[in-house]
Amino acid sequence: MRKILIAGAVVALTFATAAPAFASNPQGTASAGSADFAKADQTFKVEPLAVCNVNPDQAGTVTASGPAVSRSGLKIGETSSTCTTEVVNPDEFLTRTKSVAKGKGFELSTLVGQKGPRLKIGEWTINCDADEKGTSVGWELKGMSGWTGLPQQIPSGYVHEVKASSGVVLARAKFTDTVFPVPNDGSISMTLLKLTFEPSSGYTGSITVGTAACSPTP
Question: Beta-carbon neighbour count of residue 177 at 10 Å?
Fold first, then answer.
């Protein structure tokens, strides 16, 4: 059973001559994940876990945490997040922010009944950093198993097909889905992993692991 470590980063820079504008993404936010899926008359819903938001008007750190989750076919360990605002130049009122969400112990076993894999992620982290020049998003996945055929280096927006032993696609997992607003104001958002069930699985809905977004600071 393969266990791998994968990490990466995406940067969105503003133009130095760009005029001030309202950002399309939040000033800074992070969440460890959520779930909303169903089968027949059963519904499984997990509200966004460990959600934090930066306070752009005051230096300091906002923290949040989420309890372990155990649903039929889905387990998620304890989760946490921190959203920090730091003053880097008080004379010019320059700040920077960092929004981070972490989780561990993800296990999805709902597809085993359809001869699919047991999907595990040991740990995950996603962060969004911002200053007056622009933004960047970083991420990390550790201890993955059951993701047969997943490349060692995951490109942005990569879609992985989760298949049964027969080759039937039971779900599609989209990794590092990054969104830049149009027109680009320098803000950025990323969903580390979103798994969407296919009809062949007997389930509808999706599961999200790790989200973060931020905008350039004033």
Answer: 17
